[in-house]
Specification:
3-stranded mixed sheet; two-stranded antiparallel sheet; 3 domains; about 290 residues; transmembrane helix; single chain; 5 strands; CBS-domain; CNNM transmembrane domain-containing protein; 10 helices; mainly alpha
C-alpha cells in the first residue's frame, strides 16, 4: 500500500510539473508571436545598424530567425496550439472535465496570453534574442508541417513584408520625432524642416521657390540712400536688395545690405554709386525657343 501511495504521489507531482511546463510553453509561444512578429524586418535592420549597442546585438540575433516570417509564424502557432490542446488532457486526470476546461482556460488566459504578451510587448527584443536558439530548434521540429503551410502563405500573400514608408508617411514620422511634437523626439525644429523640405523636392517646381515680381522689394537705381530709404531697407530685413532700372520688372543687379553700413544717410548717396552685383538669370523654355526659331 505504501508503494502504491508513493507511485500515485509521484504521478500526481509529475502531472503538475507537466501542466506548469505546458502553460509556460504556451505563454512563451504566445509572447514570441507578438514580440517577434510585431517588428518588421525593416525595423530590425534599423535597430541592428543604428540602435543602442545592446539592442544591436539583440537585433542581429533575431534577424536570421525571423527572415522567413511565415515559417516562424507557423512554427510558433503550431507549438502554441499543441500546448493548449495538451493541457486539458493532463488536467482531466486530476479534476473533472468541467474543472479541466475552466482551469485550462484560466491558466492559458492569464499565464499563457495576458502576462506573456504584455511582457513581450515591452521586452520583445531582449526575450526574442535570448530564446532565438530554442526557436531554431522548434523550427526544425515543426518543419515538416510548418514549411508547407508557410510556402502556401508565401504564394497566396507574398513573401515580401517590407514595411517601407511613403514620402508623406516618412514626413509625418519625422515631424512626430521633433521635440516640438511632445513625444520625446530629439529632432529640433530646423532639422525637421530641412528633412521635410528634402522629402518634398521631387514634388516642387522652380515656381515654388520663386517670389512673384510684384511682391519683390526692390529699389530704383536712381533712388537716393537717404534716411527713409535706409530705414525701409532695414525694416525689410533682407541681406540682398534687388536694383531695377526704370521699371520693377527690369532687375539689373543687387546690392548687399552689409555694404550700406559705411554709407551716411545725410549724404543721400545715389544707388548707382554703390557696388551693384550682377545676378544670374534664366529664361523660360518657350522664350528660348522663340529666340532660336
Amino acid at each position: 500500500m505504501a508503494v502504491e501511495h508513493t507511485c500515485c504521489g509521484t504521478e500526481f507531482f509529475l502531472q503538475i510539473v507537466i501542466i506548469v511546463l505546458l502553460v509556460l510553453f504556451a505563454g512563451l509561444m504566445s509572447g514570441l508571436t507578438l514580440g517577434l512578429m510585431s517588428m518588421s524586418l525593416v525595423d530590425l535592420e534599423v535597430v541592428a545598424k543604428s540602435g543602442k549597442p545592446k539592442d544591436r546585438k539583440y537585433a542581429e540575433r533575431i534577424l536570421p530567425v525571423v527572415r522567413n516570417q511565415h515559417l516562424i509564424l507557423c512554427t510558433l502557432l503550431i507549438c502554441n496550439a499543441a500546448a493548449m490542446e495538451a493541457l486539458p488532457i493532463f488536467l482531466d486526470k486530476l479534476v473533472s472535465a468541467l474543472g479541466a476546461v475552466l482551469i485550462s482556460v484560466t491558466l492559458l488566459l492569464l499565464f499563457g496570453e495576458i502576462i506573456p504578451q504584455s511582457v513581450c510587448t515591452r521586452y520583445g527584443l531582449a526575450i526574442g534574442a535570448t530564446v532565438a536558439p530554442f526557436v531554431r530548434i522548434l523550427i526544425w521540429i515543426c518543419f515538416p508541417v510548418a514549411y508547407p503551410i508557410s510556402k502556401i502563405l508565401d504564394c497566396v500573400l507574398g513573401n515580401g513584408h517590407v514595411a517601407l514608408f511613403r514620402r508623406a508617411e516618412l514626413k509625418t514620422l519625422v515631424n512626430l520625432h521633433g521635440n516640438e511634437a511632445g513625444k520625446g523626439g530629439e529632432l529640433t525644429h530646423d532639422e525637421t524642416t530641412i528633412i521635410a523640405g528634402a522629402l518634398e523636392l521631387t514634388e516642387k517646381t522652380a515656381s515654388h521657390a520663386m517670389t512673384p515680381i510684384s511682391q519683390t522689394f526692390a529699389i530704383d537705381i536712381n533712388a537716393k540712400l537717404d534716411r527713409d530709404m535706409m530705414n525701409l531697407i532695414l525694416e525689410k530685413g533682407h541681406s540682398r536688395v534687388p536694383v531695377y532700372y526704370e521699371q520693377p520688372s527690369n532687375i539689373i543687379g543687387l546690392i548687399l545690405a552689409k555694404n550700406l553700413l559705411t554709407i551716411h544717410p545725410e549724404d543721400e548717396t545715389p544707388v548707382k554709386n554703390v557696388t551693384i552685383r550682377r545676378i544670374p538669370r534664366f529664361l523660360l523654355i518657350n522664350h528660348v525657343l522663340q529666340l532660336i526659331f
